[in-house]
Amino acid sequence: MSTTSPALFETLKQGLADIERNGLHRRRRIADSACAAHMTVDGREIIGFASNDYLGLAAHETLREALAEGARKYGAGSGGSHLLGGHSRTHAKLEDDLAAFSGGFVDQARALYFSTGYMANLATLTTLGAVSKSGGRNTLMFCDALNHASLIDGTRLSRAEIRIYPHADAEALDAMLEASANDGGTKIIVTDSVFSMDGNIAPLARLLELAKRHGAWLVVDDAHGFGVLGPQGRGALAEAALRSPYLVYVGTLGKAAGVSGAFVIAHETVIEWFVQRARPYIFTTASAPAVAHAVSASLKIIGGQEGDERRAHLATLIDCTRAILQRTRWSPVYSHTAVQPLIIGGNEETLTLAAALDEYRMWVPAIRPPTVPVSTSRLRISLSAAHSHDDLAKLDEALQTLSNRS
After folding, report:
1. Which of 86, 163, 271, 277 has its CA 20 to 30 A from that of 115?
2. In contact, 196 and 165? CB cutoff 8 Å
3. What does the CA dihedral 68, 72, 74, 79 come to, rounded to 10 degrees?
4. Which CATH topology does 28-59+304-403 take?
5. Higher pLDDT pick, 170 / 2
6. Is residue 130 scored above 90 in pLDDT?
């Protein structure tokens, strides 16, 4: 007969109590409708400022139809990993489409499709970091201090030596690379393009200059830039007009693209190495082919006239929101992206303000440690091309009213 140790559960309960006491408890909300600017959440109609659906494509009728068409043609699931029966014609087509769409930064560009962005980052860093003969232990990874959790976990799992440089500080990074000049091994610079909790953009041109000078790879996670930044939404590398065989580009497809999944684009030699050695790619079931079919339809919208119109509208919303936040008594973060943070400070005050906005039927999430540094808890306002200026007028009215309360 098995027995259960009460002490094991008491340890978990104590940990949960500590989370609650420190104002760090997280709660899932239930959406009863499609992701959109106006949603039904927990049974109530709200204006949503929580999603990363930057172009408002998640509920787009063309993508709904493409997903259904893909399911009719390919079924509900892939049935296996990409290397064991699960790689469909539509997966292959999507990878070709992605390489053509965002691969202009390198000759012989090739794309590899993943089920999630987290998996793509784990695969990229563990596999690229394992090129050294010592299995990755002779690899140095230079990481921005505010990189996303998936990048942090990928560097840790790579078994590389990790060196953290101050956020977006290219000069500090240069000094660190210079100091490691005699260390040998593979060097990899790792950065987000748009930092998801601050909305600012990494100095990519300068980082690439350093990568070239010091003989390093530059891995760029463009999760919050793909579809929004650059000509036709081709991403942060296209916006900065960067080109180098040593760039490795990661993008996600569940944000601006409105669907699901992620991809890595790099020189074909890099991608073939991933196919042969990337454990998060090799040992998981491929995503449903219908999803890949819908992503290919999304790329046509992103790169066409409608995509340009949606990005132009989003730009006006960004400017308007920045002006709104500057009129409050709290501290907006300087951002020209769809991520518009408003730093409140303490956990409880941030939670209280988020709850007050919920009373106005607005979903603006409270972001707290460890996602952001202690004492910088904030509201994270995520804008979408599906929002209207009337939506922002309501947000403005609510924030000004709450800001003027004692």
Report:
1. 163
2. no
3. 90
4. Aspartate Aminotransferase, domain 1 (3.90.1150)
5. 170
6. no
